[in-house]
Amino acid sequence: MNAVADNVSENIRLEFDLACCDLLHAEAAVRADDDPSARERLRACRAELDAVLDMWNDLCGSWTGS
């Protein structure tokens, strides 16, 4: 790897950590008050986490030539 790849990897890991934190808060909000806005926030958090994982997979695929 090189410095740019390391930096991208670190940024994706940070985004992953933040998305996980947001997801935990959204899940707690749904447990506290299962209303449409809380469920929508949970859906958005799951979508964000999925997008971050897609970025990670794309990055890893570029390293292996896939």
Structure explained in plain terms:
The protein is mainly α and 66 residues long. Helix content is 89%, strand content 0%. It has helices at 3-32, 36-64. α1 packs antiparallel against α2.
Secondary-structure map with pairings?
Elements lengths: L2 H30 L3 H29 L2
Helix pairs in contact: 1-2
Q: Summarize the amount of helix as a percent range.
A: over 70%
Strand content: under 5%
Radius of gyration: 15 Å
Work out the helix count. Answer: 2
Domain count, please report it.
Answer: 1
- State the low-pLDDT regions, or none: none
**In whole angstroms, how far apart are the ends?**
16 Å
Give a count of the beta strands, DSSP E runs of length 2 or more: 0
Roughly what is the average pLDDT, rounded to an integer?
90
- What would you call the shape? elongated
Largest sheet: none
Give the H and E element order: HH
Primary descriptors:
66 residues; mainly alpha; 89% helix
Structure at a glance:
Helix content is 89%, strand content 0%. By secondary structure, it is mainly alpha-helical.
